[in-house]
Each structure stands twice: as structure tokens, then as C-alpha cells.
Specification:
11% strand; 693 residues; alpha+beta
């Protein structure tokens, strides 16, 4: 008892000041222990801060059009740092106003801002406001991962305090503006100004500064490239904050709101991104893994690209009520250089490239390969043919309108897209020979040998079709579609250079001459009269598949081809949309704008004609030639004859003797010139059985 009493006496004798000092020491010791443990736990795993410049980024790839104009940039772009003093005062002030109003008054983290954000988020029931300061954002961007954990948040605050102790506020703001990500591959205010506005950050207007400051909340969500209305709304919020903070006057805010902010024309050309996506894969295959920033010089013509976009959008809007939802366009020159590419109606809505990656049935746009095989087998545009009921195996092709027109020339059958004639010609010449001709010209997708292949029951891409038709447009030479001419580093070191020349001759004369003659008639008096442009030498072929699921027009002039497809991604039918409708309209609108820029010439004749050849005649006995052709063309449907052997890939087929007929043929008469049959590709029909036209 006495022992306890003595202790109580000692405690009672301690003065109030002594008790204060005692408990202060106790709390200090425990505080020190807590701090040591706290830093031991949360400092573990902190990154090395010895170098602020060691930023991990993906090497940038800059794509230029054929004239050196910027198309797009992928990866990360880091330009030279910009000094704060060189920027207009309202540029850094815009970021402070919207991101961290108390920037100059906190030690790296803002307790008031954090409490305000917590209250706002609790009221909304979700995260609507962040409490991070500019210094915290910089620390996170430079040193930490984006993981949303308590440990990372505490580490962020620790690094922010360390940065505030090491750097001045101006130095921190300079680092922030030169390191923050603005979307579209741009890191830093200078890269963002160049990327979005084609100007230096020193030249930014109040409205442009507000737009860039507004991007930081979510670069993709507020991108002025794909989300223009949302970006404009966010920029207005920034302007309001700038006015409230006294950074700009009410008059300056009003002027900024009224002055439109114009984003770089090249970046606004979103449909060119389909082209860039296509090249991205090729760049990697050509140079492999790379750690340097690259410049890719391409074949694209941005002016033609913009014209193609306008043509596609105009017709998609016009024919949307008829079920036309998607379109693809590929334009190539005679050397295979892709000058324009549209992969869909909206790159923002869908990045699937229908110009390259979609495989859709070609319909009658495949028929030129059928007739090329026939021309190489000895027929001519004047060879008489018969449009009549036909059965091949258990398949009976029908024409678009269900009618049969009787006797006509092969050229008239091409112009009117007569199905029965094309099916019979392919059967008699040999479908394997037709497939060989298609592959020789540039069709890379598998070509089946079923009878319906003659009418386009073959799945191809618009890029393939443009590539294959280029041989008709350039004098019979194989053209390989490509989009890259050169790849170099920013320092000028060339990593890849495309070799030009050496194109293989894949169509000889007279077949080339005959094909161009027949395909011209498709536009002058056949299924594609809607594509005619006065004053130009044009040729091409329409195509429409079963129940209007796909519609094509592939047309060309001297050294320039454009292939157009329209349809729906779910492969459901459109409402009576044919190749002579929406695709021909897109083609004409684009080509009418493009042809004056291209300064094209007439379709070239190609290699010299055989010795002794005369136009329309291959021998001194033209009637005998016609009779020989009649024997092969008026016979009944059946299997391919033994004599019809395919030519090797890469070589035009040589004329073969025609097989003897399997059934009595009509008595031939010297045909009188007939008017081309009414185009069958654009007439209504009620039947719903599978057709290709």
C-alpha cells in the first residue's frame, strides 16, 4: 500500500507543464515510430527519381502523304521542351484554372481539395471529382503506374512533396506542361499544339489553350478529332473557370467562344486512319522490332482522300433509307499505288477496314475475268451468243429481270450483264481458266470452280478488285497494290525503299484491246451509264449479289482505277440497291473531282498487236471464225471439255480449239448490228432465288 501511495504522491507532485511535456514526449516517440514504419511500408517500391527524363514511351511513327503532308502519327511523340516564359500567360493559367486552382498555395497535395472531392463524390454516389494536384499528376505520370490503390495514392503524395521541396513552382509547372499526355500520341504542350493545330505552343489562342487544357481529364473522351461536341463543351467549361479565376476577362471569354477552333485538316481526316491501320501491319513486317521514331512516306493523296470521303458520305446519307449502311472505296494508279482508301462509313464507330479485310461476293464485277479467258481462247466482242435458258449440272442461272433476249454479240452481253451468257462462256472456256486469269491479274482470295463463280460467287476485297482491274487500265501489266514508298528515321537513315518498275505483262493483245472495248460499253450504253463523265475515256463493270446484299462498281480510265462496294455488315439485303446505283454514284462523284487533278490520259492500247491483225478480225475468214465460235457457244450446258486446259499462272491463256457441240445448234445467220439490250443490272424483279448480276 505504501508503495502505491508513494507513486501517487510523485504523480500528484508533477506540475501541469510537466504533464504536458511528458505526454508530448510520449506522442513524439510514438509518432516517430509510426513515421518510420509508415515510410518503411510505403516507400518500399518507390521508383528511382534520379532522372526525370527517363520516360518509357512507344516509338512514334509519322505517316506522310505523297506530297509530304502529315496524315497521322502513331505511338508517342515527344518534342523539345518549351520554357514557361515563352508561352502566353493564359496558356499555363488555363491548366491551373481547371486542374489545380490552389497550385501556388499547397505543398504538393491539397487537403482542402481532397476533402472537397470526397464530399462531391459521396453526394454523387460515384467519382465525379478528383483531388490530385498538378504536382501529384506529374509525379504519377513520371514515376508511378495508373493503378488505383491506397498505396499508390500515398506514394503519389510522398513524391509530390519531394518534388515541391526540390523544385520551384515554375519548374514543376514547366515539367508538367512538357510531359503530360494530350491524346493522339502527343506528349507535352508543344507536341499537342503541333499535332492538333499545326502550330507552335507559343502561338496558341485562348480557345485553343482551353481546348488542350480540357483534354487532360480524358484525352479520348474529349478528343476534338472524334468527339467534337463534347470537346467544345469541355473547352467552354475551361473558359468559364479561367474567367472566374481572373485569368481572362468576360470580353476575352466571349471572343474565344465565338471564334471557331480549327483542328488540323490532316488529323480531322479520320477516314485516312483506315489506310494508316493497313500500313501499320506492313511497317512492322518490313523493318521488324524498332526503337527509333520513324517517318513513313506513303502513296496516299490527301486531297483525293478528302474527295473520296465526301463522295462516300454524300451517298451514304442519300441512300441510308434504302439500307445502305457501309461503303468501301479503293483508288489505285496504274503502278498499284493506293491514292485513296475508305474502309467504312465512320472510323469512330468502327475501325474494321472493309476495303482490305472484308471479303464480299463480287457479283458481276467478276465477269471481266470470265470474258478475258474467252478473249484469250479466241473469241471477240463481235462473236454472236445466245441469251436463252441454260442448265449446268443442277444449276440454272437466270437474268436479273427473268427475261431472255436471244441473239446478241458478246459485247452486248457484257454491257447488259447477261448472266446466262457469262455462265455458259465460263463453262465452255473452262472455269479453271477463268480462275487462272483472275489470279494472274491480282485476285488473291480463293476462287472456287463451281458454275456460279462465273456470276461472281467469289468472295473478294475492294483492294483486290482495284488491283486486278489495274491491268486493264495500264496496258496489261500486273499492278501490286501498295501504300509505302519509303521508311526512314527522323535523322534521315533509310530503312526501306520500294523498288519501282519491272511489272509483268499479264494481258496481251488483242485480248486487252477487246476487253477495254467491251468494258467501255458498260458505261456508254450498259448497266453503268450513271457513272459516265463527259470528256473522259472510261470503262468498268457493275456487280450486285443475291438479294441485294452487295453492290459494286469497279471503273477505270488511263492509269487509274477505283473500286467501290456498298452493303451492310450483317450481310442482310439492301432495298433494291444495285451496282449501277449507289456504288456508281459514289464512283462518279469521286472521279469527277479526282480526274482534273490527275490529268489522266485515255486508256492505253497496251503491247503491239500480232502481225497481220485487223480490228475485229483475226484471220482472212471472219465468217469462219464466227462459225467456229458459234459451235462452242450455242451448245448445251455441260462439263468442261478435255481440251480446255488452264494456262499456267502468270501467262495469258493461248487460244484453244473449241469443243464440238453436245446438242444441235441454231443455224447461224450473219447477225445484223443490234442495239445493246436494256441494262439488266438495274431492273426490278420479284423473285428471291439466289442471283448474281
Amino acid at each position: 500500500m505504501s508503495h502505491g501511495h508513494g507513486g501517487g504522491e510523485r504523480s500528484a507532485r508533477r506540475s501541469p507543464m510537466g504533464r504536458l511535456l511528458y505526454w508530448t514526449a510520449v506522442l513524439g516517440v510514438w509518432g516517430l515510430i509510426f513515421s518510420v514504419v509508415f515510410f518503411a511500408v510505403f516507400a518500399r517500391g518507390l521508383p528511382d527519381t534520379s532522372s526525370l527524363d527517363a520516360i518509357q514511351r512507344v516509338p512514334s511513327v509519322t505517316y506522310l502523304d505523297r506530297n509530304g503532308v502529315l496524315i497521322a502519327a502513331r505511338g508517342s511523340e515527344q518534342t523539345q521542351s518549351v520554357d514557361l516564359e515563352t508561352l502566353p500567360d493564359y496558356v499555363p493559367a488555363a491548366f491551373i484554372a481547371i486542374e489545380d486552382r490552389r497550385f501556388y498555395h499547397h505543398p504538393g497535395f491539397d487537403p482542402i481539395g481532397m476533402v472537397r472531392a470526397i464530399v462531391a463524390n459521396m453526394r454523387a454516389g460515384r467519382v465525379v471529382q478528383g483531388g490530385s494536384t498538378l504536382t501529384q499528376q506529374l509525379a504519377k505520370n513520371l514515376f508511378l503506374t495508373p493503378d488505383q490503390t491506397m498505396k499508390r495514392k500515398i506514394q503519389e503524395i510522398m513524391l509530390a512533396v519531394w518534388m515541391e521541396l526540390r523544385f520551384t513552382k515554375e519548374e514543376i509547372l514547366t515539367l508538367y506542361l512538357n510531359r503530360v499526355y494530350f491524346g493522339a500520341g502527343a506528349y507535352g504542350i508543344e507536341a499537342a499544339a503541333q499535332r492538333y493545330f499545326d502550330k507552335s505552343a507559343r502561338e496558341l489562342t485562348v480557345g485553343e489553350a482551353a481546348l488542350l487544357a480540357g483534354l487532360l481529364k480524358a484525352p479520348s473522351r474529349y478528343s476534338p478529332l472524334s468527339e467534337t461536341e463534347r470537346a467544345a463543351g469541355r473547352a467552354t467549361v475551361v473558359l468559364n473557370e479561367m474567367e472566374e479565376a481572373g485569368v481572362i476577362t468576360a470580353e476575352q471569354r466571349e471572343a474565344a467562344v465565338l471564334e471557331p477552333v480549327r483542328v488540323s485538316r490532316t488529323l480531322a481526316t479520320q477516314h485516312a486512319q483506315y489506310f494508316v491501320d493497313w500500313l501499320d501491319r506492313e511497317v512492322r513486317s518490313l523493318i521488324g522490332e524498332n526503337s527509333e521514331d520513324l517517318i513513313v512516306e506513303t502513296t496516299l493523296d490527301l486531297t483525293l482522300q478528302a474527295q473520296a470521303e465526301r463522295a462516300v458520305q454524300t451517298i451514304l446519307e442519300r441512300d441510308g433509307e434504302r439500307g445502305v449502311e457501309q461503303a468501301a472505296l479503293v483508288a489505285v494508279d496504274g503502278e498499284g499505288r493506293v491514292r485513296a482508301m475508305i474502309g467504312g462509313g465512320s472510323y469512330t464507330d468502327s475501325q474494321f477496314n472493309r476495303a482490305v479485310d472484308a471479303r464480299r461476293q463480287a457479283g458481276s464485277s467478276f465477269k471481266p475475268f470470265v470474258y478475258l479467258a474467252a478473249m484469250e481462247a479466241g473469241y471477240t466482242p463481235d462473236t454472236p451468243v445466245e441469251d436463252q435458258p441454260l442448265t449446268i449440272g443442277n444449276w440454272s442461272p437466270r437474268n436479273y429481270d427473268g427475261r431472255f433476249r436471244g441473239r446478241m454479240t458478246m459485247q452486248q452481253a457484257v454491257a447488259g450483264s447477261i448472266n446466262t451468257v457469262a455462265a455458259y462462256v465460263a463453262d465452255r472456256v473452262g472455269r479453271d481458266r477463268v480462275a487462272s486469269a483472275a489470279r494472274r491479274l491480282g485476285i488473291t482470295s480463293p476462287v472456287n470452280l463451281q458454275p456460279a463463280m462465273a456470276l461472281g460467287a467469289v468472295e473478294v476485297s475492294p483492294l483486290e478488285m482495284a488491283q486486278a482491274y489495274a491491268a486493264f487500265a495500264n496496258g496489261g501489266r500486273r499492278a501490286r497494290a501498295h501504300g509505302i514508298t519509303r521508311i526512314r528515321t527522323r535523322e534521315g537513315r533509310v530503312l526501306y525503299q520500294r523498288a519501282e518498275g519491272g511489272a509483268q505483262q499479264v494481258i496481251n493483245n488483242p485480248p486487252l484491246y477487246y476487253m477495254n472495248q467491251m468494258l467501255r460499253s458498260v458505261i456508254t450504253g450498259g448497266t453503268a451509264t450513271a457513272a459516265a463523265i463527259e470528256g473522259y475515256d472510261l470503262a468498268g463493270k457493275t456487280g450486285t449479289t443475291s438479294d441485294y446484299k452487295d453492290a459494286w462498281f469497279v471503273g477505270y480510265t488511263g492509269g487509274f482505277v477505283t473500286a467501290v462496294w456498298v452493303g451492310r455488315d450483317d450481310n442482310t439485303p439492301m432495298r433494291r440497291v444495285t451496282g449501277g446505283g449507289a456504288p456508281a454514284a459514289i464512283w462518279r462523284r469521286f472521279m469527277a473531282d479526282a480526274l482534273p487533278r490527275l490529268n489522266v490520259q485515255r486508256i492505253p492500247d497496251g503491247p503491239p498487236m500480232p502481225e497481220g491483225w485487223q480490228d475485229g478480225l483475226q484471220s482472212e475468214d471472219p465468217l469462219g471464225d464466227i462459225m467456229d465460235g458459234l459451235e462452242g457457244l450455242f451448245g448445251g450446258g455441260g462439263e468442261v471439255q478435255p481440251g480446255d486446259q488452264p494456262a499456267p499462272d502468270g501467262q495469258p491463256a493461248q487460244p484453244q480449239p473449241q469443243p464440238q457441240p453436245q446438242q444441235p445448234t441454231p443455224q447461224p445467220a450473219q447477225p445484223t448490228p443490234a442495239q445493246p439490250p436494256r441494262p439488266s443490272g438495274d431492273q426490278p424483279r420479284e423473285e428471291r432465288e439466289p442471283l448474281f448480276f
